[in-house]
């Protein structure tokens, strides 16, 4: 049985393990600088693919079996070990273009929106239709707040929504907690350490909000 196991390492950093009988692929999204953020990361992180929406952030990530991980930090289309990644740029008036990561593996489409700061236009939304699992900022500050995050989740009709970039214990950066977002979308604040999912597990008719404990 092939499945995904998703672990939240804090901020917009997730570990996505894609497992099958014969192979395992690990993706790390948006590693951060613990000294700046105030949260800890594991001393050793191992991945096959690293997605970075901010190329300036440096954190040591090892590859499997002595190999270097494949790092994606510029817009484009990529295929690595059966995983399709599209780094899609969106213009930002006052800063370099923001881009989001469209990840497709095992029949599941994940959209990781990085530190997205604004609501997307209709044309931009059309470019990212068909999302199964949305990883979205909800804490405001330098990224989307709860209201805008809920609007994006509704417009994309995501089947699973995973909040990120919100206030947790130890965070040095300004952000709201996850509760305002949960209130807007009418979801409970139950947390789980990891989220395991297969294509057939995805909800068919309603949006499911998954709040992960920081690992």
Automatic annotation (TrEMBL):
Name of the featured protein: Lactamase
One of the Pfam families matching this protein, by short name: Lactamase_B_3
Matching Gene3D superfamilies: Ribonuclease Z/Hydroxyacylglutathione hydrolase-like
Signal peptide interval: none
Entry-linked PANTHER family: UPF0173 METAL-DEPENDENT HYDROLASE YTKL (PTHR39189)
């Amino acid at each position: 049985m092939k499945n995904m196991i998703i672990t939240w390492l804090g901020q917009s950093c997730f570990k996505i393990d894609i497992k099958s009988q014969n192979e395992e692929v690990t993706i790390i999204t948006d590693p951060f600088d613990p000294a700046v953020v105030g949260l800890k990361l594991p001393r050793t992180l191992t991945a096959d693919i690293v997605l970075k929406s901010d190329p300036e952030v440096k954190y040591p990530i090892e590859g499997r079996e002595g190999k270097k991980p494949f790092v994606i930090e510029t817009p484009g289309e990529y295929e690595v070990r059966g995983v399709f990644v599209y780094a899609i740029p969106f213009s930002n008036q006052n800063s370099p273009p923001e881009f989001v990561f469209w990840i497709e593996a095992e029949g599941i489409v994940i959209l990781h929106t990085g530190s997205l700061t604004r609501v997307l236009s209709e044309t931009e939304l059309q470019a990212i239709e068909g999302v199964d699992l949305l990883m979205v900022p909800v804490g405001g500050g330098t990224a989307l707040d709860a209201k805008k995050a809920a609007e994006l989740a509704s417009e994309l009709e995501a089947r699973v929504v995973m909040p990120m970039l919100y206030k947790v214990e130890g965070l040095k950066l300004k952000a709201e907690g996850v509760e305002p977002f949960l209130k807007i979308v009418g979801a409970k604040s139950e947390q789980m350490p990891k989220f395991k999912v297969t294509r057939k597990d995805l909800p068919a008719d309603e949006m499911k909000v998954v709040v992960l404990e920081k690992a």
